[in-house]
Amino acid sequence: MIRRSIAVLASVSVPMVALMLGGYQGGLFAQFALYGVATAALALCWGFAGILSLGHAVSFGIGAYVAAWCGINIPEGGTILGILLGGLAAGFVSMLVGLVGLRGRVNVITFALLTFVLLFGAVEVVNQLTPITGGFNGLAGVPSLNLGDLWTADPVSQRVIVTIAAVGLLWSLIVVARSPFGGVLVLAKTHAIRAASSGYNIPAFRIGTFSFAGVVTGLAGALFSTQTQFVAPDQISLALATNFVLWAMIGSRTSLIGSFFTAIVISFITNELADRFLTVWLLAMGIIFIAVVVLIPDGVAEAVLKRLPERWHPRRVVTLTTATEDTSGGGAALEAKAITCVFGKFTAVDDVNFTARGGVHCLIGPNGAGKSTLLNALSGTVPPSNGTWRIGDTDLTKMRPWHMARAGVARKFQTPAIAPELTVAQNLAVARMGVTVHPLALIFTKWRADLTSTAWRILEAGDLVRLLDTPAFRLSHGQRQILELAMTFASRPTLVLLDEPTAGMTAGETASVAEILRTEASALDIPIVVVEHDMALIRSAASAVTVLQAGRVLATGTVEEIENNADVTRAYVGEGH
Question: Topology in the membrane (predicted)?
Answer without folding.
Answer: Multi-pass membrane protein
